[in-house]
Structure formats: structure tokens, C-alpha cells
Amino acid sequence: MEIPIENDLCSRIRRSEQALMAHHEAVLRAYGLTMTQYTVLLVISREGGMSGAQLARSCGVTQQSMSSVLTNMENKELIRRETSPVHAKVQIATLTAEGQTLLDRAYQEVIILERALTDAFTPSEHTALCELLERATTVLIQQTRRATAPPAA
Residue 79 class from Cβ within 10 Å (0-12 exposed, 13-18 middle, 19+ buried)? Predict the structure, then answer.
């Protein structure tokens, strides 16, 4: 039995994700940031200095892509990279004052959508939606692992 497209959860999740990304990209463009650059600033602000590999995992991009993003951000003086005291070949990215200022300004625009979404639901609906999205994310991650696992012998 085929599920009607209007009941297709994957399509609905994808549409929501596309709408969210389009909004964030429009807002961040005014600050000269891409979504990945904004996420780097946000993650470093919350977690402290991180390696390119750690940031790539946090942002869901390849290490090669992250290397390019970090070089661009370093050239804009939004981050600085210094050699790790633990591993000589690892560079640790931290925010500059300019990066923190830009993040603070951009965040004030991004948070408007978060508040609008929160206001669109009652507190119990908001809690339920967050729990349902977490459950959906868990299933998506599990299915991806299964799809990418080597075939059983």
C-alpha cells in the first residue's frame, strides 16, 4: 500500500528543513555569513576552541569543506587558529572579538524565528513537538547507519 504524499513524514520534515534553511540563509546573508560559518561561530562560542575535525562533525560537513570554511573565516578575522598544545599537527579554532560581535548581532536576528515558532504552539504542544522531533531524528540516524553499514557476510 502506498502512502499518500500528504502523509509522507520525510517530505514534511524536508519541507520544514528547507524553510528553516531559507530563512536563516536570508538573515545571515545580511551579515556576510553562510549557515556553516554561523554554526561554526555558534559552536565555538558554546563549546570553546575546537579542531577542524570536531567542527566538521558538529556542522555536518566534510573535513575538507570545513578547512575551506575556516580559512575563509580566518581571513575575515572572525576566528583564529593556533596549534594544539596536545597535537602539533592539529589547529584549534577560537573566536576573535570580531567573530563574537558578529555572532551576537546575527543571533539577535536568528532568535526572532525561534521565538515565533515557540509562540505558534502551546507549551504542551511545544514540548511534544520537541520530543517527537528528537524521536524522528533518532530513527533517521539509525536508518542512515543501517543504510551505510557494510552488508552482512
Answer: buried
